[in-house]
């Protein structure tokens, strides 16, 4: 597995640097047991991205704005992140991830624990963030893949079956397994 030309399994790889280059958003929101501010400031602090409080404040605000959460939390930045709703917690986790300006954001079923309204907000956010970040999403929702993806890869039993632009995969799949899945014959 490589990121650009770097082997991600190389034992000499600096995992701290890798964690700054590749962000991760999990299936279930996992805010740290810290304030909203400290959740977002955590990465920039440990990676030395802000030398002054002013710089850190700016990163936190910018990240929360990009995650579509600033207006909802700007007056309670020192309240616990765990006190937010599920959808807000997931957006907080996205803000925390993008605060270190990663090259790639991996999202593992980022909406599976959310209601339809929170899911729509996260999907809208994914579309906006895809202009600035490479985003890879794992989802079992074909509708979600069709809505938010530019390219789609279909895996069956751990094997890559097909990868193409999303429209092609959903309208003219090249492999019978892909067609069977998207037409509902199995899955």
In brief, what are we looking at here?
The chain is of the alpha/beta class and 187 residues long. It is built from nine helices and seven strands; from the N terminus they run ββαβααααβαβαββαα.
Overview of this protein structure:
It contains 9 helices and 7 strands, in the order ββαβααααβαβαββαα. It is α/β, with parallel strands linked by helices and 187 residues long. A 3-stranded parallel sheet has the order 3-4-5. The protein has a two-stranded antiparallel sheet with strand order 1-2. β6 and β7 form a beta hairpin. α2 packs across α3, α2 packs parallel to α5 and α3 packs across α5. The longest helix has 14 residues. The model has no long low-confidence stretch (mean pLDDT 93).
Sum up the structure in keywords:
single chain; 187 residues; alpha/beta; three-stranded parallel β-sheet; two-stranded antiparallel ribbon; globular
Neighbour order of strands in the largest sheet: 3-4-5
User: What structural category characterises the helix and strand content?
Assistant: alpha/beta
Mean pLDDT: 93
State the shape: globular
First CA to last CA: what distance?
28 Å
Largest sheet: 3 strands, parallel
Classify the oligomer.
Answer: single chain
Q: Which bin fits the share of residues in helices?
A: 40-55%
Q: Count up the helices.
A: 9
Radius of gyration: 18 Å
Number of strands: 7
- Content of β-strand: 15-25%
Q: Could you give the order of the helices and strands?
A: EEHEHHHHEHEHEEHH
